[in-house]
Fold:
Amino acid sequence: MKMVEWIISDGLTDFRTAEAWMEERATQIAAGTADECIWLVEHPPLYTAGTSAKVSDLTDPDRFPVYDTRRGGQYTYHGPGQRVVYVMLDVGKRGRDVRRFVQQLEAWVIATLDSFNVTGEIREGRVGVWVQRPDKPLTANGNIPEDKIAAIGIRLRKWVSFHGISINVEPDLDHFGGIVPCGITGHGVTSLVDLGLPVSMDTLDVALRAAFETVFESPR
Structure:
């Protein structure tokens, strides 16, 4: 049975370099010449546009480089202090159920956050993983505010996934101000450190790997 290879890159990884590497690895996985792979990186400050991105959601186009991608979703931000998790898994051998696969990615993030006593939640019509903020004033509707802590956006080629998820550890949250993150208005963005948890990137990586084993079974 093949194993999933884990790679952690130090420093800041160029986005186009990462994209090309992912595509090549996905091709190799589909051909059966490489193992599945989880690649953990950080990027310099940048915005990426998914296939559903609306130009009007790029509110400050000159702030950081903007990269068009072929992943699903809308605009998102990547930058230092955010763990980007590129997920190259053989969805074909894992049941050929894209919806279930996305749910597994969500469950993976939620299980990882749970190890820090953070309750991540999914909201219908809102992509990503959210946390309630009872420390903030109630919304105009009298509800507890919710902030986004993780984003999800994938692409499949020959039933192999690439792109993946991002979790905010300690990014500059002001950098999200140049876009409407994932096209969702009326909500904020948070991070583990913003929630008062002094979590390091290394600690998150350990939690990610432990949670992965609980959510994803080995492919047949």
Q: What stands out?
A: The CA atoms of residues 77 and 176 lie 6 Å apart. Residues 15-31 form the longest helix (17 residues). The longest strand covers residues 146-157.
